[in-house]
Amino acid sequence: MKVVLQKDVLNLGDAGDIKEVADGYARNFLIPRRLAVRANDGNTKMAIHQKKLASLKRDKRVKVMKDLAASIEGQTYEIKVKVGEKDKMFGSVTATDIANAMKKSGIELDKRKLDLGEPLKNVGDYKIKVRLAEGVTPQIQVKVIGEG
User: Fold this and answer.
1) 115 three-class SS
2) CA separation (Å) from 74 to 119, 130, 140, 141?
3) CA 46/CA 37 separation, integer angstroms
4) Domain with CATH 3.10.430.100 in the chain
5) CB-based contact 35:27 (threshold 8 Å)
6) What is the 8-class DSSP label of residue 7?
7) What gap in Å lies between CA 18 and CA 43, rounded to an integer?
8) How does DSSP classify residue 44?
């Protein structure tokens, strides 16, 4: 039976794909869970149209993110933290701290886009990847400065 996927289905396909599946799989699993609908002329045309719209939206988003990436690539952000003896930090610098430092310079960015790996626990310079969109990952410099 041919079906049009309404949502992404693991090991089958993405939303909008037209797939040939076993009748029982379609009737007993995909259709009752609203993961797919039976493929007919109307549903097929709708799926193709939705894929085109999604592609256009994704291309537009990538273009906007490339412009943002060009503006932040190589920028240096300073974060001042309190330190004790031997430059030992109290706490750590997290993605939230870096996002707040970027916000002060006029760039609003979600903290989940910053790829730290783990919080920064030492004073020094770090290179941080920013995941903006598929294939758009600029790097920024974060300078952790101890005070106190």
Assistant:
1) strand
2) 20, 11, 5, 6
3) 11
4) 73-147
5) no
6) S
7) 10
8) H
Rounded to the nearest 5 percent, the helix, strand and coil shares of the chain are 40, 30, 35
CATH number for domain 2-67, candidates 3.40.50.12780, 3.40.5.10, 3.40.109.10, 3.90.180.10: 3.40.5.10
Model pLDDT for residues 35-64, shown as the tens digit of each residue: 999 988 888 888 888 888 888 888 898 898
- Indicate the pTM of the whole model: 0.66
Per-residue confidence band for 117, with pLDDT thresholds at 50, 70 and 90: confident
Q: How far is CA 116 from the centre of its chain?
A: 14
If DSSP codes are grouped into helix, strand and coil, which group holds residue 74? coil
Question: Which CA distances in Å does 83 have to 90, 96, 106, 121?
Answer: 6, 19, 27, 11
Range 73-147 classified under CATH 3.10.430.100:
yes
What would you measure as the largest C-alpha separation in the chain, in angstroms? 73
Amino acid of residue 74: G
CATH 3.40.5.10, the chain: domain bounds: 2-67
Phi, psi of 84, rounded to the nearest 5 degrees:
-105, -145
